[in-house]
Amino acid sequence: MPMKILVLDPLTLAGKELLGRDQRLTSIGGEFDFRHTGIDDESQIAEIGSHPALVPPLDAPEDLMNVDVIVVASDGVSSRHDHLLAFLDDNPDQAIVDLTRLGFLDSRTRPSVGAQLPESRQLRVAHPAIVATAAVVEALAHLGRLHGSLAAVDPVSTFGQEGIKLLADQAGQRMQGASVDDRIQGHILAFNVVAVDGDLLENEAALVLPETPLAVTHSLSGSFHGHIGHLGLSFGHPVGPQDIDEALSLAPGIEVADLPVGLDSIPDTDHVVVTPPVLSPDRTQLALTLMVNGLRIGGALTALEILEGLL
To answer: Is the full-model pTM beyond 0.90?
Structure first.
């Protein structure tokens, strides 16, 4: 029997990115159902491939019965999510993939970068900067034990379509010298960068990369799209620049870009884009910048890898 997959909120930015991956979804061979958590009691219309699909509201925990995997693509939390939580309380072994990491499922899920699934079947897609870091660490692991630091910088698309709209409104108000009334998660992000608590990401990195200790900081930026990770890695011995270049150039899913490279080039790529690596004079410290489309890397593509692993 095909796996039955219920997608919660398929019309968000993350949901649309997931459903737009026709070939991968076909290879999974799942049977899809949909629910939305909006305040509207009306059904919505989604499209999977070229076929329309009805998206009724999530009205009760029973709406989630007889489902193999629940994929949460919500970009906000509403009272309808109480039905999901109630269902998970009564069904603790239910497989779930949290695509959008809103926080209300953090205590119930373990982060995954998709390649190797933890034993848990209640998973969340790891943060895009951590997924990108995992790809780089895997490429360089043969050069010795690594440790270092990661500075993750998020765009407002992290907060869904509403976040993008609010950023545009904030920019207009600031350009006019007016007070900014509407905040994004309590912040003014137009023409701004805000440092926030990085503990959650550091804990997530420790779970995903237990052999690579990382100190992690976290910031929110005024960019519309594109996640950035400023990654510094330390080696236990000097390494040759040619070894770094070869490892990154041969790694699947990594693209070494020529400088300069801007975030505006990222939305159309499925790769982790890295800047040319820079080694310290003693060749024991490596610095590079990671750029990804977080709707794909650490988003829909990572979620699809997780789903494939749950088959």
So the answer is: yes
